[in-house]
């Protein structure tokens, strides 16, 4: 026996009428005449084999069958609309410009790109790896669509704080802390100023009255990791991208957590930009969960 197939247009009229509590309003919303809507509802009840609406005062109310049908109809329409949305997105073209701090670019970028291209295979991505000040300037000049940076306290008009991660003192596994303090000052490996982590490090050491000196500056995170691994000093960073041959050092002053913020250049992001922002948030949340259980 061949099973009947519901007409999605009819189900959409039914759902819209119930949501508006008026099939006259539904007819106007869907661009149909009231007689066409009445014919659709009649067709629907014929297919179901029992009334889905009943008179209630001056209006209509759902029957028990109608209530059951409403839930199923909504799911069918969501599935239908989702399929068309996915097909549309897969054909979307254009260019999306993303800026990242090097920590994020080194550790999250491949995962984010892999997920993004599954939904928007024809959208080109331009990725800029830079420091906070440069990325903020590019967002404000509309040369970047999105930028993920450390929270320095400045929020652009369309910024969203996504979370935070703990800062840690980092050193080489085979370099005892006391050996570094023989000359009575702690050697630091840092970015050039201004740098939010550099400021946090020097403020914490000053508050604890621990003398320090800048032993080496590097324009890249990779350079910092290399200098620390060589035993030239210690740095202050997060666990994001921490190499296995380096370790968190104890015995130095406590430092706070560091927030990260996603900036965008306008209040009306494209669907592709919205998807990329959602993937960034998901990736950061997953990474934060892993850090929680691998300390």
TrEMBL record:
<dbReference type="Pfam" id="PF00126">
    <property type="entry name" value="HTH_1"/>
</dbReference>
<protein>
    <submittedName>
        <fullName>LysR substrate-binding domain-containing protein</fullName>
    </submittedName>
</protein>
<dbReference type="Pfam" id="PF03466">
    <property type="entry name" value="LysR_substrate"/>
</dbReference>
<keyword id="KW-0238">DNA-binding</keyword>
<dbReference type="InterPro" id="IPR036390">
    <property type="entry name" value="WH_DNA-bd_sf"/>
</dbReference>
<keyword id="KW-0804">Transcription</keyword>
<comment type="similarity">
    <text>Belongs to the LysR transcriptional regulatory family.</text>
</comment>
<dbReference type="InterPro" id="IPR000847">
    <property type="entry name" value="LysR_HTH_N"/>
</dbReference>
<dbReference type="InterPro" id="IPR005119">
    <property type="entry name" value="LysR_subst-bd"/>
</dbReference>
<feature type="domain" description="HTH lysR-type">
    <location>
        <begin position="6"/>
        <end position="63"/>
    </location>
</feature>
<dbReference type="InterPro" id="IPR050176">
    <property type="entry name" value="LTTR"/>
</dbReference>
<dbReference type="InterPro" id="IPR036388">
    <property type="entry name" value="WH-like_DNA-bd_sf"/>
</dbReference>
<keyword id="KW-0805">Transcription regulation</keyword>
């Amino acid at each position: 026996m061949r099973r009947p197939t519901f007409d999605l247009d009819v189900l959409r009229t039914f759902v819209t009428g119930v949501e508006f509590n008026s099939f006259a309003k539904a007819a106007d919303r869907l661009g149909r005449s009231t007689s066409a809507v009445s014919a659709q509802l009649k067709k629907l009840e014929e297919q179901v084999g029992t009334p889905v609406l009943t008179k209630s005062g001056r209006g209509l109310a759902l029957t028990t069958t109608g209530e059951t049908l409403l839930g199923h109809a909504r799911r069918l329409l969501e599935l239908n609309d989702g399929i068309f949305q996915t097909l549309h997105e897969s054909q979307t073209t254009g260019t999306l410009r993303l800026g990242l701090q090097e920590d994020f670019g080194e550790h999250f970028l491949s995962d984010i790109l892999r997920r993004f291209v599954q939904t928007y295979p024809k959208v080109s991505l331009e990725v800029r790896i830079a420091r906070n000040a440069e990325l903020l300037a590019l967002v404000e000049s509309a040369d970047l669509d999105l930028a993920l940076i450390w929270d320095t306290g400045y929020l652009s008009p369309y910024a969203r704080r996504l979370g935070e991660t703990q800062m840690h003192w980092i050193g080489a596994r085979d370099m005892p802390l006391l050996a570094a303090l023989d000359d009575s000052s702690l050697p630091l490996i840092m970015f050039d100023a201004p740098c939010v982590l550099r400021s946090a490090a020097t403020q914490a050491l000053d508050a604890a009255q621990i003398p320090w000196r800048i032993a080496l500056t590097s324009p890249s995170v990779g350079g910092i990791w290399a200098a620390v691994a060589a035993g030239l000093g210690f740095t202050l960073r997060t666990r994001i991208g921490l190499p296995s041959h380096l370790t968190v050092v104890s015995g130095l002053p406590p430092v706070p957590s560091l927030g990260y913020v996603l900036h965008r250049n306008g209040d009306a992001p494209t669907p592709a930009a919205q998807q990329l922002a959602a993937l960034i948030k998901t990736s950061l949340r997953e990474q934060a969960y892993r850090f929680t259980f691998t300390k």
